[in-house]
């Protein structure tokens, strides 16, 4: 069953894989965007104005929300009353798309969550080397750490391997580790993968060797996801 699930997910962009693996219910007052959603649909279902949804979530472009993105749907500082309209699960939205508004698209990479995670995760550095690219939430959804080919890559936290392969374009030999209901990490461009799907790994366990598969230099591309959305892994890594 796990392998069938992973095979299906391998046909999706990385962000969709991560969102699917991290599909735990969102916090009260928030909604996780689904395929076909628009800001107008979400605002209508939650009985809010489009302007409020845009303002509460600092959306630079309300026509470009993405599947897996978490949006606040009640005013900051409040929680929805029991039985109220705010939805915290993934029930379908049936309202019609507003003219000229683009529906939510399956993303090439998820956007960052709109609020800091309520619970943290204790990470260690997944490899030794120099950080040659930092997270910016736009065209860089993680960090790149460069070193020599074959440098050990270790699990940043304990968890379960939910993807091991090279079927996701642009990531080369890739591992995805699910740590709990909220957090996932991804390790891309490896020369060799030393674990398989379904394996349990401990923090610090060697899981791969650094490489340059589907990349123009030898480096580990490391991503941290919360609820399917990318967040800056450097916030959770120890200072070194």
TrEMBL record:
Keyword Signal in record: yes
Keywords recorded for this protein, A-Z: Signal
Signal peptide feature range: 1-19
Biased composition range(s): Low complexity: 75-92, 102-115
Record's keyword annotation contains Signal: yes
Domain named LysM: residues: 29-73
Location of the region described as Disordered in the Swiss-Prot/TrEMBL record: 74-115
Molecular function terms from GO: metalloendopeptidase activity
Family: Belongs to the E.coli NlpD/Haemophilus LppB family.
Protein name stated in the entry: LysM peptidoglycan-binding domain-containing protein
The species this protein was found in: Trinickia fusca
Taxonomic lineage: Bacteria, Pseudomonadati, Pseudomonadota, Betaproteobacteria, Burkholderiales
């Amino acid at each position: 069953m796990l392998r069938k699930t992973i095979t299906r997910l391998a046909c999706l962009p990385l962000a969709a894989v991560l969102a699917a693996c991290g599909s735990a219910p969102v916090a009260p007052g928030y909604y996780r965007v689904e395929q076909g959603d628009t800001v107008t649909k979400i605002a209508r279902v939650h009985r809010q104005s489009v302007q409020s949804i845009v303002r509460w979530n600092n959306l630079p472009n309300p026509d470009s929300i993405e599947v897996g993105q978490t949006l606040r749907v009640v005013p900051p500082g409040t929680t929805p009353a029991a039985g109220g309209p705010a939805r915290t699960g993934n029930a379908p939205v049936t309202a019609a798309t507003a003219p000229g508004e683009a529906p939510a698209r399956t993303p090439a990479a998820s956007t960052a969550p709109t609020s800091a995670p309520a619970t943290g995760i204790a990470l260690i550095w997944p490899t030794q080397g120099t950080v040659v690219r930092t997270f910016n939430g736009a065209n860089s959804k993680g960090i790149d750490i460069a070193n020599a080919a074959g440098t050990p890559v270790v699990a940043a936290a304990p968890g379960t391997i939910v993807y091991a392969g090279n079927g996701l374009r642009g990531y080369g030999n890739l591992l995805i580790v699910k740590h709990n209901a909220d957090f996932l990490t991804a390790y891309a461009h490896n020369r060799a993968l030393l674990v398989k799907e379904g394996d349990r790994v401990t923090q610090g366990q060697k899981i791969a060797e650094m490489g340059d598969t589907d990349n123009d230099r030898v480096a580990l591309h490391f991503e941290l996801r919360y609820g399917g959305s990318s967040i800056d892994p450097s916030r959770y890594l120890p200072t070194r």
